[in-house]
Amino acid sequence: MCFSCQTAAVRLAPADRAGHGGTSPASRPDGIPAGRDDAPVNPAGLPTAYEHGNRLTPEGTTVDPILVEIVEGTLASVEMEVETAIARTSRSPMIRDAHDFRAGIHDRQLRKLTGRSYSALVHPVVRDFPLAEMEEGDVYFHNDVYESEGGIGHLPDLCVTVPVFADGEVVAFVQAFGHHDDIGGGVPGSMPSHARSVFEEGLSVPPIKLWDKGVPNEAALRIMTRNSRMPDSLAADLDAECSACLMGARRLAELFERYGRDTIEAAFDTILDRTTETYRREILSKIPDGTYVWEDYAEHDGVDEPRLHTQRITLTKQSTGGPGRSDQYPEGGPKLVIDFTGTAPQAKGPINHCGDYVGGNFLKKWLAPILRNLADTPERMAELDVNEGIVPLIEMRFPEKGTLLTPIYPAPTNARTFVILRLLGVLAGVVAKAVDGRMPADQETIRYTGVYGKDRDGNDYLMREVLGGGSGGRYYADGEDTIHVVPDSRNLPTEFTESRFPFIVERLGLAVDSGGAGLHRGGLGYEKHLRMLQDARFMSIADRSILACWGVKGGKAGASFEVTIDLGGPDERVVDALADAEPVRAGQVIRIRTTGGGGWGDPLDRPLADVERDLRWGKVSFAGARRDYGVVATGTIDEPVIDAEASEQLRAQLRSERFGEQPFFDRGPGYAALAEGRTTAEVDWL
């Protein structure tokens, strides 16, 4: 390492550096000093007593760019080391095998510094526990949705937070949260699909000190494990997460000790400033100024009959008003305003999401990865991180309390994936309207399925899996097959599940014809067959079983989610996508088909060679090639033969049978069933 990187590499601006305890009251956007009686409160009615989101060093502070790279690389390394430690020492399949957890590193202004994945928020911890009272070895815990400031979506997501110290003061935080097997509630797995209140969903824990100066709070741990159907797994997972975050805190403390606090905090500011400038220059500049509107829907909430639960975004791109000043933007750079007005009232069932906290801070970082699709190349898109640097570029406007995104306590939330996943698609769709479709078609790449009962030894078991689906076709390529929205996640290995649970995995492959047809086809979903060896109960928390992942610019919608029990048997039946305890007898087969991504562009323009390849790979059937692509083929899967002349004739016929202008979005046949026979929404047209 070069010597200059080990010496003072930071140059402060003439103004004094921001104080260690937070920025001055004058820097608050609302101008109200912290601690005053008239200081604002968060939507939960709890005091927001700590300044957050501001710079650590004054504008104009510079730092050695080589050291910035070292710091950024160290942050990524520590984050990965924390996740690796959790994966290797946890016990539950959801954490250890499916990798449904995330780590994150935040500075003392609560800003997320790492960008490999999303994470929860530190805000609720600092809200309830002053920094000055924190000690080395402390570990904080919470999972209460309504006291998490929007960082936790449902109770099975348990979050641990560890402060990092330098010279006796808190300088950063290491945090991890993950989806755990069971935290109590009405059904195994703590995700009752028909819940009407949060009280049915499990144990809610507001921020507490779980470890005090390195000593675990055994009473609190006993309360949590006593409420779980899987107490041993829960205890082991929490121990793994606490220990891993404590290890990560030690690693970060070494970084501060090596280079000094001023230098590291200047590097933190530079990392986030660079993200802000990159997205302003490379991403927001691609969206024309103006206002665009689109909406999409969840289809059921587990309580009411299926209907359209609207999620609407009005997107406004403003050339000025964002952070920073320059010759091009003397009043500040471009900014996106995301207005959720028009979103449906909160549901009776558990599909609500608490998004309207801290100005939508969590949702900004959750939605921002969609914007990366506007990068110049796929390679550049993969290089762009999403950290706190994107937050100043986005303003969110929420409707009044009582909607899907602003639910009122104690509305249930365990299936909030129906809302936050849909919002990814709504943002992609509204941006697609602004940029002539240069965004991917829709995807629905997460749903929970599982079985539970007694194993062959008479012991209780729970097998729950988070299966992915196909991603949407893109303007330059097909969608990807069987992806998952959670980075690094995976389906459970067959060797593990068959050895631990009483069933056999008879098939795991791609669901043929599930990808939406298009010039660029949507990715395929899973098809998985489980043959039960013992009587059991099947559970499912899934959406897009009536509706489908939409296609764009002539592309068609993908196939919907579907579960069939007793496949090929006398009791064969399709079960509802929201199910808590569907009976399955020993010997019966459960078939799970997950969603395919939407298609991009006219499928009748897809090159014949690409359709031949899909036939050869088994991704499209011969019937599907004719029906969806107008391609006439004979032969076998190994040796398909395309009749080019007959295909051109069929394509000409199919084009002639189209009536009038086509909508910009295709929602699939299920939409009409919930929209009183309408095949398109008003917002589906340019």
Automatic annotation (TrEMBL):
Which residue numbers delimit the Hydantoinase B/oxoprolinase domain?
64-603
Q: Where is this region: Disordered?
A: 16-43
Source organism superkingdom: Bacteria
Which species?
A: Humibacillus xanthopallidus
* Record-linked InterPro entries: Hydantoinase_B, Oxoprolinase-like
Q: Give the protein name, as stated in the record.
A: N-methylhydantoinase B
Q: Some GO term, biological process aspect, for this entry: which one?
A: glutathione metabolic process
One GO term of the cellular component aspect?
cytosol
Q: Name one GO molecular function term.
A: 5-oxoprolinase (ATP-hydrolyzing) activity
